[in-house]
């Protein structure tokens, strides 16, 4: 770890212990009124590309203009246009495999291999590409794990197993995701990636669906899903056990070549992020981002109540970021700049946040942190402040100092099976190396403890999550929302008035990404 980073951690501890508290006044009634407005039926579930988007963005812009905030987009604009490319196969891909010295054999999806072009052109044209089996397809220097070793995969098709080792944690790692594996293969020069699936029938049933490309995703020729049975015939039947041991397994060439032709019909959905900015008065090129997604899932054609209002998910977070901006504006400029990002298409796969990370308005190398708000806690006061991805970066340590000053504590989210750290708009920032924090709903109630808190949380989640019942009501309790917003404000303000650079912890998978831009950040001494 660079010495400047260690100094940054030490300085963080000093700053967060000694700095005076900032006055702030988050109003529960203002939160309630605004959530009620943008989750009303006439916003039609705030789906991207609909009247709901127009109304939501207009409301957001009006709020920021009223508080005197400046537009945060390019060229003095409030909006960042995000073009979402949607692909649908014109027909089954034409695929053939050749063994060493043998004739080409055609492979249909039913034989155990589905293939999709996975790039902005919507085309794949690969002839006789060598095939390499790369185990899990993981390079994790912080875990002393490297499936690729010295194998050159330039111009080749990489085959990987799904999932990842546990790495000694019950929480999922980014390394298990297909997106990571595609990025790593592309970074190494591969033309395509194929994943061995134990449940190939499920992959086959989804092969013809429309898919939306994540902005900035790897421009591979194609991606494929391979059945375990066909994998065995390719010589990938006995290496699963090998690949579990990083010391025993290294990528190796298979005696095969693949030829693929595929074409997709392209369609573009135009949607928008909205950004507001408070420029720093000493280090304006260093940026703290507060983010929340404004969108929800729209409506359906079922009889009765068919509007998915999304009061909790995520009108609450949207309004929380607006109110955060209001408090920053009242306090006046900080040393660093602060950006308030309202991302689109989170419900479609974090696509607005990916769009920002792929085409950042402010350089990611000098983005100090992202603090994301998705579904404010709606309960009485809690002792705990759960966060997604506990153990990832030093933002949690800074937050814990502030929480303990209020008699509270930072905890994990308690649901390792959900992989929550990869499921909201902080994650595209993390994937790009920016330390990112996502607080969650507390369950250690001051009145009733964990038993009462878990029961209340489980009841609310089951009753309203992604259902038309996620509506505003007069009995919503904003006590914990105000508590958390106050802590997040103090964290953001401390960062904005310091030279601290939060860092990834030694075992985080994102430290290696951040390290690529170390030289672009000022020494915090």
Question: How does the SSE layout of this entry go?
Answer:
Elements: H1 3-18, H2 28-38, H3 51-66, E1 70-71, E2 79-89, E3 94-99, E4 104-106, E5 113-117, E6 123-133, E7 139-140, E8 145-146, E9 157-161, H4 178-187, E10 192-197, H5 200-205, E11 211-212, E12 222-227, H6 228-233, H7 240-243, E13 252-278, E14 283-293, H8 311-331, E15 336-343, H9 351-358, E16 367-372, E17 384-387, H10 395-404, E18 409-412, H11 427-431, E19 436-437, H12 449-464, H13 479-496, H14 511-515
Parallel strand pairs: 6-9, 9-10, 10-12, 14-15, 14-16, 16-19, 17-18
Antiparallel strand pairs: 1-13, 2-11, 2-13, 3-4, 3-13, 5-12, 6-13, 7-8, 13-15
Helix pairs in contact: 1-10, 2-8, 8-13, 10-13
Given as residue ranges, the uncertain stretches (5+ residues, pLDDT < 50) are 1-21
Mean pLDDT figure: 92
Coarse shape = globular
N-to-C span: 16 Å
Which value, in Å, is the CA radius of gyration? 24 Å
Instruction: Summarize the main sheet.
Output: 15 strands, mixed
Q: What is the percent of helical residues?
A: 25-40%
Number of strands: 19
- Percent of residues in beta strands: 15-25%
> Helix/strand/pairing class, anyone?
alpha/beta
Number of helices: 14
Task: Walk me through what this model shows.
With 525 residues, the chain is of the alpha/beta class. It contains 14 helices and 19 strands. It has helices at residues 3-18, 28-38, 51-66, 178-187, 200-205, 228-233, 240-243, 311-331, 351-358, 395-404, 427-431, 449-464, 479-496, 511-515, and strands spanning 70-71, 79-89, 94-99, 104-106, 113-117, 123-133, 139-140, 145-146, 157-161, 192-197, 211-212, 222-227, 252-278, 283-293, 336-343, 367-372, 384-387, 409-412, 436-437. The strands form three sheets. It has a 15-stranded mixed sheet that branches. It has a two-stranded antiparallel sheet with strand order 7-8. The longest helix is centred in the middle third of the chain and has 21 residues, at 311-331. The chain is globular. The two termini are 16 Å apart.
């Amino acid at each position: 770890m660079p010495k400047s980073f260690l100094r940054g951690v030490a300085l963080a501890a000093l700053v967060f212990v000694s700095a005076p508290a900032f006055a702030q006044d988050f109003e529960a009634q203002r939160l309630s009124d605004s959530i009620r407005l943008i989750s009303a039926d006439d916003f039609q579930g705030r789906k991207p590309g609909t009247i709901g988007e127009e109304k939501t963005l207009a409301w957001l812009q009006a709020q920021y203009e009223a508080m005197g905030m400046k537009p945060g987009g390019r060229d003095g604009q409030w909006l960042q246009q995000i073009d979402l490319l949607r692909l649908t196969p014109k027909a089954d891909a034409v695929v053939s495999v050749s063994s060493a010295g043998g004739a080409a054999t055609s492979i249909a999806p039913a034989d155990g291999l589905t293939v999709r072009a996975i790039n902005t052109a919507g085309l794949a044209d690969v002839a006789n590409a060598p095939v390499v089996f790369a185990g899990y397809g993981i390079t994790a220097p912080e875990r002393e794990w490297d499936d690729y070793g010295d194998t050159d995969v330039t111009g080749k098709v990489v085959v990987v197993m799904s999932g990842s080792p546990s790495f000694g944690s019950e929480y999922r790692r980014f390394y298990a995701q297909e997106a990571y594996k595609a990025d790593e293969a592309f970074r190494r020069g591969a033309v395509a990636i194929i994943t061995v699936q134990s449940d190939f029938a499920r992959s086959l049933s989804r092969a013809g669906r429309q898919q939306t490309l994540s902005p900035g995703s790897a421009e591979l020729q194609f991606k494929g899903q391979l059945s375990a049975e066909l994998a065995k015939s390719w010589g990938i039947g006995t290496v699963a056990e090998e690949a579990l041991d990083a010391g025993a397994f290294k990528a190796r060439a298979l005696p095969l070549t693949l030829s693929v032709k595929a074409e997709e019909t392209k369609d573009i959905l135009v949607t928008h992020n909205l950004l507001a900015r408070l420029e720093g008065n000493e280090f304006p090129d260093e940026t703290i981002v507060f983010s929340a997604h404004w969108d929800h899932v729209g409506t359906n054609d079922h009889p009765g109540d068919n509007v998915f209002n999304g009061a909790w998910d995520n009108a609450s977070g949207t309004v929380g970021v607006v109110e955060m901006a209001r408090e920053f504006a009242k306090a006046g400029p900080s040393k660093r700049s602060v950006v308030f990002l309202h991302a689109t298409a989170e419900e479609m796969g974090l696509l607005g946040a990916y769009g920002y990370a792929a085409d950042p308005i402010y350089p990611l190398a000098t983005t100090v942190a992202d603090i994301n708000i998705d579904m404010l806690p709606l309960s009485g006061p809690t002792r705990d402040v759960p966060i997604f991805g506990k153990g990832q970066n030093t933002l949690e340590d800074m937050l814990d100092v502030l929480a303990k000053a209020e008699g509270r504590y930072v905890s994990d989210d308690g649901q390792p099976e959900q992989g929550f750290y990869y499921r909201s708009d902080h994650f595209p920032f993390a994937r790009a190396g920016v330390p990112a924090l996502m607080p969650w709903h507390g369950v250690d109630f001051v009145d009733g403890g964990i038993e009462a808190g878990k029961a209340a949380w489980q009841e609310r989640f089951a009753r309203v999550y992604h259902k038309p019942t996620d509506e505003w009501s007069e009995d919503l309790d904003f006590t914990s929302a105000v508590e958390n917003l106050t802590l997040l404000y103090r964290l953001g303000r401390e960062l904005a008035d310091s030279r601290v650079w939060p860092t990834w912890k030694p075992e985080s998978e994102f430290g290696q990404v951040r390290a690529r831009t170390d030289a672009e950040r000022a020494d915090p001494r």
